[in-house]
Amino acid sequence: MKKFLQLPCPNSSRLLYTKPGRSEREALMSSWRFELHKIYTSYNQLSLSIEALKLKGLPGNEAARMNQYLMLLQWRFNELRYIKGYRTPEGIRAFAKIFIMIHSLFYGSYYAFLAQNVTLLWALLFAYMAGIAMVGLVNIERALEDPFNQNGLDKIRVEKMLNELLVDLKLIVVRRDAVVTGILPFLGAEFETL
After folding, report:
1. Rounded to an integer, what distance in angstroms lies between the CA atom of residue 38 and that of residue 36?
2. What is the pLDDT of residues 111-143, one digit of tens each?
3. Rounded CA gap, 102 and 112, in Å?
């Protein structure tokens, strides 16, 4: 799952509309399909393992609960997959880029008005800040396109989060083993009060 989430997003304009980009996109989509196949094969193996446990004597209600957790896992992964593949509509992106280029034509007379009635410094500062704000908004939109990309400040740190999850799972297994072997007392009294 980590490899899939860290793959580049295949929906950029360069990959969709340029000849070298299309061949690069095809290679990238091949990697996407391969990683998705591995993930869905793992889900299938988990499902088959639950069925094998049922044949070995696992009660049906526990198997149903395990299948429910597997279904939730698949559902959450599909949500991550859709977030990964999402792309801002091309019309909005084009409008934003064009508006940044021609905004000085629309607001030029207002900047001239500010220069005459207030000060030239205020007009220049206002024009500069408006341009910086618009470029910043487009950069934010571009950064939010792929939240799993590891370049940038506000990114989802996939590798760090998965490593923390593995540490937590190992801790749970160690604690469970200690309870099963009798080293730690089971906190049954707390559960009886619920």
Report:
1. 5
2. 888 889 988 898 889 888 888 888 888 887 777
3. 16
